[in-house]
Amino acid sequence: MKTKNLIGLLLSLLIITGSVFVAVNGIGDENIGSAKDISLGLDLAGGVSITYTTVKENPTDQEINDTQYKLNQRITESGYTEGEVYIEGNNRINVDIPDVSDPNKVLEELGKPGDLKFVDSTGKVIITGSDVKDSNAIKDQDGLGYLVALELNSEGKDKFAEGTGANVGKPIAIMYNGQQIMAPIVSERINDGVATISGMTNAEEAFELATYIRIGALPLELKELRSNVVGAKMGQDAITTSVKAGLIGILLVFAFMIIVYRVPGVAASIGLTFYASLLIIALSVFNMTLTLPGIAGMILSVGMAVDANVIIFSRIKEELGMGKTLKASVKAGFRKATSAIIDGNVTTLIAATVLYIMGTGPVRGFAQTLALGIVISMFTALVVTRLILTSFVEIGIKNKTLYGVGRKAKIFDIIERKRIWFGISIFVIVIGFVFLPIHSGTEDSELNYDIEFAGGTSTLVTTDTVMFENVEELQAGVGELVTEATGDETPQMNVVKGVEGQGQFVIKTKDLDTEQGLLLRTALMEEFDIEPANIESETISATISSEMSRDAIIAVIVASIFILLYVTFRFHDFRFGVAAVIALVHDVAIVFAVYSILFIPINNSFIAAMLTIVGYSINDTIVLFDRVRENQKSMKRGDYRGVINVSISQTISRSINTSLTTFAMIFVLNLLGVASIKEFALPLMVGIASGTYSSIFIASPLWYLFKKKEEAKIQKAHAQS
After folding, report:
1. CATH architecture observed for domain 116-216
2. Whether this model's pTM surpasses 0.70
3. Are residues 227 and 107 in contact, defined by beta-carbon separation less than 8 angstroms?
4. For 189-237, what is each residue's pLDDT tens digit?
5. CATH number belonging to the domain at 456-539, selected among 3.30.70.260, 3.40.50.620, 3.60.110.10, 3.40.190.290
């Protein structure tokens, strides 16, 4: 038996080693499955992202599709073969172009209408794109060849009649953006504004010509709603620091798990290594795009992977404390922990699914990596870690002290001081609201709305050396330059801490158009002698910023409703679900208060932080409620206070240990990360502390009050009967 289990353990370790090798090096020349092969979002890889809307309110499908085709043609002709153009809604078009060396050029060229002209052999312009009404590829009368049917508007009709009459038997060149597309021969004067162009050898050629004519004549005018320019070097710095922080954080987690849980901690560390490698392989194989909010999702999924192991090991220690054999304790530990792990992960998975379906951009990136991480973490905790730990026991590592024998939990009377716990939360939340009018008077705004929520342009500049130590020096150094380039008399500026040896500063202005943005970038490059890749800018109109905030709020509300329904179904008591959702809202309110009090910028990082807290909070509460559900079966009927106090006492070490490990990872990110990483690290640390607090001191007492109220109603009904 020992030999069989030893072989199984060695095979498992071999598979895990192989997965780590693939995650680091990949397979084949393209490094498939490795971190090198993961598609990076523009906020990490660098590039240009632009969202346009049509000035025309209700464009036709053909107009939108032609505009998409036109933009695709332009970025392809410019050499950006990996650029992507996609339609959003019925009047918006997004353009994403990675690895752009000269973003100024891209911003300047995209979005302008095409230049279409029909020119005779002498160079005289007969008609332009504004004279064309429509153009389509059709079959000829024999049904064997293809033609392009051309229809002109009233002004174009007269011009074309004159031009074709003067050039019968001669070619008229069709020019698009200065290049000749075709030069058909005029067979007769065309008076009715309807013509056909022959000479196409196949349907594809006819379609292409018809499209060129249409897009050159396109009546749609595009307006820039949002643009984001990220230097490749800045993205690389974000990746490098995140990877470094992640490795340090993981090593700290491993050390903690081994010190606290001993042999099970070793099994967990091996399982978590497998988890991390599988996550990297999956991101590569499924061609998922990793973004900064996606990194936040990965952090949360790592925390939940650790949490699953902590729940299991805490159960094993309890079973050992009751005098059971090691083998029986391991088996019972996994069995009893399974429901809590599944319920906690499924509720978070529900939130991730809703956010992915309803969210856009950064929200979807967060939800995608979180969902993937949750699925993989459940597999590694319930299958891989179990296999490894069972193998350890079977091959002879049976000293109970190496597994940590649990002691009888000291009972904490949390319910007795419920008013104190509620009071603390209310005090912090009220203080957050008190600061709103204070900031309104001192800062001209209740909250520190960044451009994602207020609209405007944010420009981040990185220099090789630290040029400005504080805001006053920065204002004196670039204030006049910014005002001259943008026309904004009161730009907001801030010095941020960059990577060691580098300087960084942020300039926030009104919503700049393309020309103003280019003027500012050019002025900064000339003033500081820096490369385009060292300037990152983002422009968001007030319209799209309000939509982003609205969509995020709606998504969180819908996710909360589905979580409430799931918890009610699983626990057969809607009071569990109501208490869990109230605790979730409590945590969001606490973090909001921190943003208010400290005047932290509210931007995409705010959304990512809030979403992470939602996932963490609900998981923590569900694990505690799972123990309450279990203890109800064996404790005195109606003793809700005793059930809650015992359940909290049994799980409080698990809550603290999970929070410490997740907190440690985010603390390292805050310590080493770039500015964009730091922005959501502090709120996340507050959210983790709040999530642990609310599970114990808010959700549990609330459930107790709900049950006592229910019992009072029942007793009253019995008395009346």
Report:
1. 2-Layer Sandwich (3.30)
2. yes
3. yes
4. 999 989 888 888 788 888 878 877 776 655 567 777 777 776 656 666 7
5. 3.30.70.260
